[in-house]
Structures are given as C-alpha cells and as structure tokens.
Records
---
Amino acid sequence: MLEAFEDALDFSGQVVCVTGSGRGIGETVAASFAEAGAAVVVADVDVDAAEETAETIGSEYGTETLPVEVDVSDYDEARALVETAVAELGGLDVLVNNAGVAGARRFRESDPEDWDRKIGVSLYGTLNCTHAALPELVDRSGVVINYASSSYRGNDPGLAVYGAAKAANRSFTKTLATEVGGDGVRVNCVCPGTVHTPATEAFVEQYADELLDAYALDRIGDPADVASAVVFLASDAAEWITGETLHVDGGYLRR
Ligand code: ADP
C-alpha cells in the first residue's frame, strides 16, 4: 500500500500550472510539484518573481519550468496562459488556482475598486483559469485545485470581501466537480488558515498572541503545510476525492 502511495505522488510526465507562484505559498506549491517530478508552469502577474522562482526550482529539482506573466483576473490572459503551457510543455494535467489578493479593510472603508481587485483575482482568477484550462484537463483526466481561506466562514473582521470570494470558490469547487466528474476531471479545494509568508509577516507580528490562541495546534502554518495538501489532492492517492474542501488550518478554533 505504501509503495502505491509513493507511486501516486510521482508526477513525472505531468504538467502542473500554479498561479501566483512567484512567491509565498504558491512558490512552495510549485517547488513541491517540481520535487515530485512535474514540469511546472510558474504563472504570476509579477514576471520577475515568476522568472526567479522558475529558475530556482528548475535548477534545484532538475525539472522543466516555464515562467509565464499573467493577470489571472483577465480572461484573455488566462487563455493565453493555458495556450502557452500547452504549446511549450505539451498539455496540462493539474491547474492550481493559488493566486489571490488579501489585505484587511473594514467593509465601510472599502470601495468598489478594492472589491474588484479582491474578487477579480481570488474569484474571477479561479473562474478564468479553470474555464480556459478545462478542455486540456478533460483531455488528460486532469485536476483543478482551488483555494478557500479560513475567512470564508465570515469570522474575520476586515476580510468580508476576500472571505466572500473564498466562500464562492468553495461553492464553485463543489458544483464544478459534479459537472465534470463524468469527464474524468477532479476538482478540490484547500482552505488554509494563516500561513507565514512575506505577505502576512506584519499581520502575524501584530496579532501573534491572538493568532496562537486561535489554533488548536499552537502554531500558524507554513507554506509547506499547504503544499503537501495540494500535492496530495492533485495526486492519484486522492483519485476518489472530488468536490471536497480540505481545511489546512491547524484546527482553527473560530469555525
Ligand atoms: P500568499 O500569502 O497567499 O502566498 P502572496 O501575496 O505572498 O500571498 O502571493 C500571492 C502571489 O500571487 C504573488 O506572487 C502575486 O504576485 C500573485 N498575484 C497577485 N495578483 C495576481 C494576478 N492578478 N495574477 C497572477 N498572479 C497574481
């Protein structure tokens, strides 16, 4: 059984696209798939970060990596991303919709521009890339991994809009899974709690005590905690799991 599990985590010959993988959680997710043998598309709106990450993980794990500049909130750019991946790497097996824009702001102090940015990247980014990738994923019985966030429950003041987008991702995951299961495509979601990244550094420092109180396992997450869940859900070890949201949150207590 363990040998089969290990084989299932071997992504050799597969092409994996991770959006928002120039830095943060996405970077570690991309590196984990490279370590597992996949060719990895490092897609990010920050092309310098994408190029640097692609170079670093390519040389570390000896797999093919392809940096692509994309704004996932734009449908045409999402289509171009998929076209480039297929043209350069021959197809697409796994799409990880990791790109997101957080940033706490009380709803009364927010404005439509802020909503557009958060919903544009965190929700529309997921819809755009998934819609663009589906024909390729159907071709290869592929997998989509979406991202919710602990804030989808509506328990985090300041994250109303971000949380709403993440709740939508969770619902979208389930419905899409029912629509494309018959085509051999699985769709799952990870729901991370607070994770140490450059983007969360200041927030984590400011709220360190409250944060620790909120996690049953007495620590906040690392990008690798999320990456191992994503790789598992994308792998054949999860071949009978679809429409699911896996909470990767150290037992977040504000559920
Ligand atoms: P996290 O803590 O969730 O990892 P980060 O801000 O560290 O958040 O990383 C998010 C990544 O998503 C960054 O590399 C960022 O450039 C990327 N990103 C943000 N907006 C977009 C977008 N519109 N299209 C593609 N990538 C994006």
Note: The chain is about 50% helix and 15% strand.
---
Amino acid sequence: MEWWVSMPKIELHAHLNGSIRNSTLLYALIHTPLFWELARVLGEKGVIVFSDVEHVIKKNDRSLGEVFKLFDLIHILTTDHKTVTRITKEVVEDFASENVVYLELRTTPKKNDSIGMSKQSYMEAVIEGLRAVTAVDIDFVPHKFNTQDSLNTIAMNDACDGTRRKKTYVRLLLSIDRRETTEAAIETVKLALEMRGLGVVGIDLSGNPDVGEWNTFLPALKFAQEQGLYITLHCGEVPNRQEVQPMLDFLPQRIGHAIFFEEEEWRQLKTSKIPVEICLTSNIKTESISSIDIHHFVDLYNAKHPLVLCTDDAGVFSTSLSNEYKLASTAFGLGKREMFELARNGIEFIFAGDEVKQYLVGAFDSAAKKLN
Ligand code: 6MZ
C-alpha cells in the first residue's frame, strides 16, 4: 500500500460530505439534539451502544438508493457552520496526507433558515475550513485573484526552518442537487461566480439520479457555461435514455461515472473525448456494476480515452485514492508505471490554468525520479 500512498495523485471527483471521517460522523451524531430525542423516544434514556451506532454508519455495500438515504442522514448531522468547517479541514488534510497534490472538492451549498444558514454562509464555512488547514500548505485561490493581502496568501514553499513543505492545490466545485428547482440551481451558479476569487472554479450536477430532469438544470448549466465556469455532470449513473445524449451534446469539460450507456452513446463519448471520472469502489459498493472484471474502465483505457480515478465518497465507501489506484492495478493487471502515467494524465483534465499544470508536471517528474 505504501507505494500507492507515496505516488502523487490528482483527485477530481470527491463530494465533501461523502468524504467525511467516520469519527467525525459519530461525533456529529452524538452532538445532535435529534439523536438524543430519538434515544429518548426509543426508551433508551440517553444510553447508547456506540458499537451498534458505528455498525450502522460503517455498513458496507449499500444500494445506490440506500446511499442517498444515508446522505440525508449525514446532512441532518453535519449541516451547521462549525461542522462544515471541520469536515472541510479534515477532508483536505486526509487527501493531502496520501499525497494528493491537486484536489477538486465538490459540495452542495445548503440553505437552512432555522440555523441562519444561506448557501453563501455555507460556502463561507467551507472556505473557513480551507483556511484552518495546518498539516500542509494549500493553494486554493487561482493566481489571477491572489493579491498580496489575500487572506489565502500562504508561505508556499518554505517553512520557517527553510525546508520545503508539502503543498496541495485545492479547487472547489459547487454541486447542484438534482432535487433542486431551476431557480435554486441558478442561485448556486451565481454564488459560484461570486466566489471565483475564493477558489470556486466550476459546477457539478449530482444527487439521486432517479430524481429530477435534465431540462430543469439546463438553464443554470448554460448560464454557467456562458460565464466560463467549468462543468462536470454525473452522467449515466442509472439507465436514462432521455438524459445521456443531451448531456454529451452539452459538451461538459468532464463527466462522472458513465455507466449505463448504449452503444451509440459510447461512440459519441469516445469521439467527443470528454474525460471520465471513474469511481471504482463507489460503483461496486452501490451495485451499479456487478463485478469489477466487467467495469467499463477496461474498454475506455484500451481505447486511450481520457480517464481519471477518483474516490467519489471516501468516507461513505471506506476507501482512499491510494486504494483506488491499488484496486485498479490489481483488478486490471496494470503495473505501477502505467498507474503512475494514468495519475499524471489527470493533469490535463483539471479545472485550473497552465501555471498549476506546470507545477503538477514538476511534482510528478520529481516523484518519478524518487519512486523509480
Ligand atoms: C450522485 C452523489 C453521489 O454535496 O453534501 N453525491 N451524487 N451520485 C453519487 N454516487 C454515489 N455521491 C454523493 O456531498 C454529498 C452529496 O453529494 C452527492 C449527493 O447529492 C450527496 O447528497 P455534499 O458535500
């Protein structure tokens, strides 16, 4: 495992709340008044068997439908400013600790009037979490916005003792949840535009794929595209003939999953060269793919289609990006060199400019010398 951890990696498909640590989820659970109320109603009078709770949260192999029920529970527990800040800090530190040198983190801005939370204040809590990261130096403000007195200005390379500290780039994508209305989706895009100077670079369309219709989100996505935001779409996570083709016609910069495609759609995807974010463990655990041997990674990899391995929800699916690389290597018989190249190729598909890409090329080059 050590080798997979030390290899530099690029994470492009990670949902903030799906990447939550188990320990933080448990902490949030026992600090939620609702939980104690539940315990009371159940007649437990506040006596909780932690191992039982842990079992429920850690349960493996949930169907896709069950996963979205779990997300609703997670959101009840984690949607307050303090917890959002904590999760953001921890998730970034967790990715950085396994040598993720560039991380695109996506999250759905949430509104909850009862606790004074707007989509904007939710995102401010996320930014607070980025600023709270101490384990590594992070760069989250694109260069053109990074003025000298920017709150994000970090002593990038040199720590006080003169040694080079590890650096991780973080960029944010705002997710539109498929349950949202057109107006709510447009509000998210406007927020993304306002927060460009704070590391927001794009828009993601996600949420339960059995809910909502493409036409509901199209106006917001078109607006985002016109304004120059990058776009990635969860596409073909369930069979949906009405959606896959219009999504591919829209020409997003990337798509996630791409599981349930018809022959013609595979052809269109390959011609379009739209990069695909592949989430192996997620696809297997949600039973979207019955066995890893038949995963479409193989066909796309052999066709030299642009691909990037990602975690999706490292917390919920108990995985890590290092683990995804190791899994692909074992399952598809690819050597370390091929996996290293696969990771490096991800540089091409990041939602950041040439300067960042150049830095990452350098990081991979120097790692290649050390690892070989
Ligand atoms: C579609 C998913 C997802 O936004 O609250 N999400 N959407 N497919 C998936 N595959 C399993 N995994 C996560 O993170 C959690 C939210 O991300 C989306 C869902 O909308 C989920 O509620 P945030 O940080």
Note: Residues 15-18, 67, 71, 107-108, 175, 177, 206-207, 234, 237, 282, 286, 312-313 surround N6-methyladenosine-5'-monophosphate (CB under 6 Å).
---
Amino acid sequence: MEKRDFSEISDTCKWESPDYEPWFPVSEKSNPLTRDIDKSSPNHIVRLLAACDAQMFQKDTGTTYQRLFSDSVVLTMLEVARTVEQILRDPEDSLVVLSGCGTSGRLAFLMASCFNRALRDRQQNTVYSYIIAGGDRALLTSLEASEDDPKLGMLTLEKLCEGKRRVLFIGISCGLSAPFVAGQLDFCLKHPDIYTPVLVGFNPVTQAREETMPGYSLTFREVVQRMEEQRGQRAFIINPAVGPEAISGSSRMKGGSATKILLETILAAAHTAAFTNTHVTRRVLLDMMRGYERVYSVTYSHSDQIATLLQTAGLSLQCGGRVCYLSWGSLGLVGLIDASECIPTFGADYEDIRGFISGGYQDMDNIEGDLTSLGSQFCIAHEDFVSLVLPTLSDRDTVLLLYTCHDDVGDVEKMVHRVREKTSNLHSLYHGLEGDTAVDSIGLLCSSVLNITWPSSSTVHMQWELSSKLVLNAVSTGSHVLKGKIYRNHMVDLQVTNSKLYHRAIHILQKLSGVSLTQCEEALLKAIYHVEQLPEDITSAGVTTHTLTASRRNRVVPLALVCLLIGCSLSEAESRLESHPVVRDAVEACLTSSQHLTSSAGDQNSTNH
Ligand code: S6P
C-alpha cells in the first residue's frame, strides 16, 4: 500500500483558513500544495496536479465554503435543471445561452455544441447557443481585452436573443469577476419577463470582484448582490469552492473542469428527464457528479504515462520544438481549447502547443464558420497539419494523438504512418470501452501509449472529454513548468492584457519583492511604458490604456520584478533578463543577488553598530 504523505494532506486544507492570503478570492489564491511545483520532477508534477484536482471533489466540512456536493449547490443545480427541462418540453421561441470569457467562453461553446448535437440526433430543434467575449476568434486565440467590456456583453446577448420569448442565461465566470458577464447578468435582471440568469463560478459571493468596471455604474459584486435578492426564483447562483488553482489564477484548469462537470450534469439530467418523461432528481445529479469523480480517479491512475507525456512535451518546448495534438471527434475541441490557452497563460507562441481536429471547421460547428482566412493560426484541420507542420516535423517535436473507439481507426492509422515518416516522437491517448477487443496496431507505432478503458454509458463521450482535458492540462502546464516559465506556483511572465491580469501582476510583484503595492504598480507601469520616470499622463490614465499598451510589449512583469529586486534601471533589468532567458532562472538569480545585497548591507550595519 502506498504510504500517505501527511504534509500534503494538511496542505490540502490550508487555503480554507481565513488567515491564508485573505486579500485574495479563492480563485486567485496560491495553492499551498504546489508551492514547489517549479522544482518538481515530471512524476511529482502529475502527483501535485492530481492532489489539486482532488480538491474539486472534497466533501463539505461545514466550513465557510460550500463544495460541489453541498446540499445548497445540488439544490440550485436541481432548480436550474428543471428550468432547462421545461424549455426542452416546450422549446418554441426559447433559448439556453451559455456565455463566458477565455476558457469559460470556450467551454460554453463546447457544451452548447454537444447538447445541440444531442437534440439533432433526436430530430429535435436546437435550443442552445453560446457567447464568447471577442467572438469565435477567441475560441482559438487569446483576446483577453474583450473580457473588460460589460456593455459589449450585454449588447451581444440582446442581439442573440432578439425575438425570444424565454431565455435561460448561464453566465460563467470562475472568479466571479468578468465585466463582460456582469453586464449580461445585469441585463437579464432588468428583463425578468424574458430572461432568467444563472451565474456559475467558484468563489463565495462575498469574494466577487469589487472593482468598478469601465463605463458601468455597478461592480460584479453589486450585480451578484442583486441576483441574491432574487435567488431561487428569478436568479440562480452556483458557486462551490474548488480550491486554488495549481498555477495561481489559472482557472482554465480546475475552474474549467468544474464548469464542465456542473453544467453537463445539469444539462444531461434535463435531457434525460425531458425525453423519458420523468423529472430531474437530486439523486440523478449526485450520481452523475460521482461519475465525474470516478473519471478523475481513473485518469490519474495512469499518472506514470501522463508524466511520460509531460516530460516529452517539456523536452520539445525546451529545445525549441513543437507539441501537436492531433485529435478526432469531440476530443478535437478539447485539444484546441487546451492549446489555445497556452498563449495567454504562458505567453506561448501559437506554434508551441497546437491543436488540430480531423474535420476542421466542419467538426467545430461554430457560429462564424470557417476562420482559416484569418491566418495560419486559424488553420486547424488535419489537412492543415499535413501541409503546414508535417513537412518540417522532426524528433524535436512531440505529436500526441487523441482518439476513441468511436472514431475512424483507419483514418488514425493513415495519419500515424505519415507522422512516423518524420518522427518517432509520437504518442497516443486512446479511450476505449470495456469488452473492446480492437487490435492495437496504432499503439505499436507510438513511443508511448495511454489507453483508458471505460464502462459503457450514455454520457461516456463527456467523460472522455473530461479525462482528456485533465491529461492535456497536465501536459501543457507541466511542460511549461519544465521549460522554466513558472516561479514557485506563479506564472511570472503573464501577459497583462486585461484588468484582472493587471491586478494579478501587481500582486505577484508584491509577493515576490515584498515592497508595497504602490511601488509595484509604479514598477509595472514603468515596464509597460518603458520609461524610467512616470509622467503625469501615464499615472492619470486608466487601466484600459495600460493594458492596451502592455499587449504590445513582452516580459513586462519580469522586467518590473528585476527592477524591484535589484533596484536597477529598466535597461539594466533588460540586460539581466537577456542573460537569463528562462524566467525562473532570472528571478532566482535576482533573488540571490538581492539577498546578498541585503545581507551585506546587514553586515555593514552590524559592523557600524
Ligand atoms: C484562465 C484563462 C482565462 C480565463 C478568463 C475568464 O486560465 O486563461 O482566459 O478563462 O479570464 O475568467 P473567468 O474567471 O471570468 O472565468
């Protein structure tokens, strides 16, 4: 029996203490479990990610936080599921809209597509639609700035729902923070005759964002308070805590997984009830969520193979190679989503980790259709992989195949042969069903194989998606950790492209330098505008102006940090960063020399005394 690590067990609960980083909401806290993730081996990284993901399913211990399985959460899910059920029974002029920014918008798209497909399969009219801040381009790339616009959110929703009699609006904001979603929720509250708003997120309402939004009179918290006044009748809030992210603030990980678990449970239960003439019950919801908990356990029971993938991908990134996910079916969307998130999360280039889906935009089924004309970054079909990537593929690159027993194995096999002509660095993630006796000719051609077998069920494809999401999140996060992008459990080189990221950057600077928030903001602004002194027109400008300027610059947070740690000019900080291209090394070198400076100043002081 494996020995239990008690230090990890206590770290699991530490974040719940009121004294632990009290100035941050749960979604922005740093996870005590992962404070040394940057120095961990591939196997240990996977163990840490598993321990963090386990926090999603932790039972309610009667503390401040409600959890996924808390009665209050399940009860609200039940009410929302019953509302969906009613819409499915009488869909005329009705719509269920899922909306969010970044990953939350991408998951809104994934789920709306999945449940519309389920309706089409039953020859029913579709009732789902999605909104992602920034439009369909944001499904594949980072358009974080649109998150800050509450009016745009509201107008997009109003336009989408024109002429509808009844709309169930599901706004997803993991941090209870996106102004785009707040504007939409507020709009729903003002039109209760048509709209019923549901907010999904992972902070208590008292931790919803308090900052004012540009051109808007309410804060997110005030919108949530208004929803609370209507709670249970005309507005619903589903907000269990799932613990801090493994990489602080990276809500694409647990936030995304928990969003998928909660909403798929609600929608799948509503479908079953509506089409079997029964009603959604608490038990059905709980059983489905427990099913997802099993997905978590089954997936991480393959930790060694996940670690192999992560190590291979890490080596590729370290030597300037690429990681390509080649997927079939709905796993393609999971691959595209994971790859696209590396751009804002790790400041990665779109070619570093890239997803391709067998049928391209035909399989995507997004509102705006084929986006290939927007440039190479938007070329997502396997044929694009063959023409754009395959010719220059080498052993430096990692290729990961994602497919299931429902996909055309002959097609997978053809692709495997083409890739093998260029590289042997080929791996596969395959989901099969119990009793599946397929001959593993594909596995024989791969350097590593991760085969997961599942019991058959009507929702197994959603379980495959979650399992693949966990694996890919581990691969993309772990490989960037190995590349040296993370310091402790913070992404230091983040892109400061919206107000949430602007404030996160200031807090990271404060945590790592120990100086005041005001000094940190000044250092950040100097790095953004590339000036040694801050003129009045910069200090008086708004956050939107700062983030717009920051979006055209690189490495602003590392630059500001080096200036703060060494007390040097921007040009000196730049040359120090140039001599340490790996961000973690640069930070460590500066910390060592600043400690050295402090201790020699201390020595000097003690000599003087
Ligand atoms: C987070 C990801 C971001 C968020 C987006 C929305 O890992 O990079 O794109 O999804 O900022 O966040 P939220 O809290 O409104 O769901």
Note: The radius of gyration is 24 Å.
---
Amino acid sequence: VKQMLKTKRILNYVVTSHCLGSGSFATVHLAMDASAYRQVACKSIKRKSRDAIDKVMKEVNILISLDHPNINRVYAANHDSSFLHIFLELCTGGDLFSYIVGHKDSRLCEGETKYIMYQLLKGLKYLHDKLISHRDLKPENILLHSPGPYPRIQIADFGLARPKAYQETFTVCGTVSYLPPEGILALDHKHLGYVGMPADCWSAGIIMYIMLTGCHPFDYEKVPGESEWYSYRPSEDLGDMSSISQTSVRSDRMVKKRIVHGEVEFPENIWHNIPDAEDLCSQLLVYDHPKRATVHAALKSKWFNCELLELEAAYRERIVSG
Ligand code: ATP
C-alpha cells in the first residue's frame, strides 16, 4: 500500500517507485500506461537549463516517430521545471554488457552473436535510412527485450543521437573505447568532421569483436613481457570487463593511441574457424571511414546466412504488419 501511495501520474502514465536502473544522467522507473494497459519504463532526466527544452523536445519528437522492433520505442515525453520524463518500451532482460559478462569467458557462441548482430544491424539500417546516427553504441546501450538465450535486442539510450542536419555542430560524443579513429581525431583536434553513420558501423564491429572473443580490440591490458594474444588478459570477471566502461584517464590515452594507430588483431586461436565472421568484423573495423562497410553492405555479408535469421525476419514482418 505504501508503495502504491508513492506513484505519480504523468500524462496517461502512472509512474511507480520501482526503480529499474539509473545511469549518469537518468533514473528509470517502472510505469503503467493507463490507456493501453501495459507496463512501460519512465526515464527521468534532470533538466540542465530551461532554455534548452524546446530543442530537446524537438529531438524527443524525432525519437517518438521511430518504430522498429530493434529500436527501443519512445512513446511520449513530458517535462516539469526539474525533470524531463520519457516513456519507453519496457525491456526486461537487462543490457547486453551484463548479458555478455554473465557468460563463461565473457563471450557468446557464434550463433548467438550472429543473431544479435543481425538485429543490431537491422535496427541501425532503419536509423541510417532516416539519416539518423546513434553515435554512442556500446553493449550498455543495447537492451534485451526479454531475457536470453538468443535474446531479442533493442538499441536504446538515444541521448546523443542526432539527425544528420544537427551533426554540423561538430559535437563530439560517445565513449572513447567505441569511437572510431576519425572520432578520436575530432576529439583531439576539434576541427575534423565527425561522420556519424560510419562511426556506428565501427562501434558495431567492436561489439561483434567483444561478443566473439570476450575482449575489446583496443581496450585491453597487456601482461608485461608477453607478446602473444594469450597475453591479453581475457575478461574473466566483471572487474576486467567493467574497465571497458570505466576507463581511467591514463588508459583512455592508451586506448585512443591504439585506435588511431589502427591495428586490429584477429588472433588465430579464436578466429581461424569463423572466417566469415572475421571478414565482416574486419570490414566494420576499416580505418578509413569512406571504405568502411555500411549497414547495407554488412547485412549482405556471407556470415548472415542461416535459418534463424529468416525466422527473425518473419517475426519482424509480423510485428510491422501488426
Ligand atoms: P548513461 O550513464 O549510459 O548515459 P543514462 O543516464 O542515460 O545512461 P540509461 O543507461 O539509459 O541512463 O538508463 C539507466 C538504466 O535504466 C539502464 O542501465 C537500465 O538498467 C534501465 N533502463 C533504461 N531503459 C530501460 C527500458 N526501456 N526498460 C527497462 N530498463 C531500462
């Protein structure tokens, strides 16, 4: 009863006190859509400045117009003097980061990686076809619609996404470990153009690499005195993998250096029996962004050729056609 008393009504939604999670900018609570009788997530973001709200609402309205099975739906938004509240499709499976580290050696099998990558690229294709780039793709921003194995995934956390027209502001954003070389250079020199869509493809390549190997291609720790792949400390536990998202300034510098150096290693012991996967991953991690695989090209990869993906496509069609 006490819990129920703490609910709050915003628009058609009843926001409960049950916290689903929080990040650096937002707190997310379980809410009920009173008109559609469904559970949703209410993301409340502390407002920074009163003046910016028109611009923010304009962006939120673009997100509300998006409708794809692999994009976390934004249903509505509302603001008061202190908070912006965004009502989102509820995802009950946690995020991809926690899902990956919950597996032995922090890696997924090829089939499951393929299933997730296919959905990720389909969601990205939908965005890119509308000239929208996400610009902060990382496993923490990919939600599991329901728990795995073989989870349905949704791209979320569009806090930094911008339609192409907005990109002219040259704002550089994203997490260092997932930024492409051109993003790092833009970050350091502040005058280079930063192209959003190829950056998403690069980040997708990093996510694919992590799922298959349990290691980040640039954000790793080398054991001194050893030079083989085995010397890269695999992500055996949460502590190691979590360093991917909680990098110190010093390791940020190392990671940036490795990214702009541009060398990605595909160690034999992991990749030798998955050549089609290696081919796609290396196409996504091409240094020069004009030569990097687009989502369209990536989806045509030889790697995506299995019955499971046909099932996924059929499921998508069913959702889209209602
Ligand atoms: P960041 O710190 O990455 O900028 P943020 O402050 O924007 O993040 P989110 O990561 O979007 O906040 O949300 C915080 C947490 O809330 C997530 O880790 C997740 O656990 C939960 N969450 C977010 N969106 C949903 C959703 N649609 N359904 C269920 N839980 C969600």
Note: Residues 161-172, 226-248 have pLDDT under 50 and may be disordered.
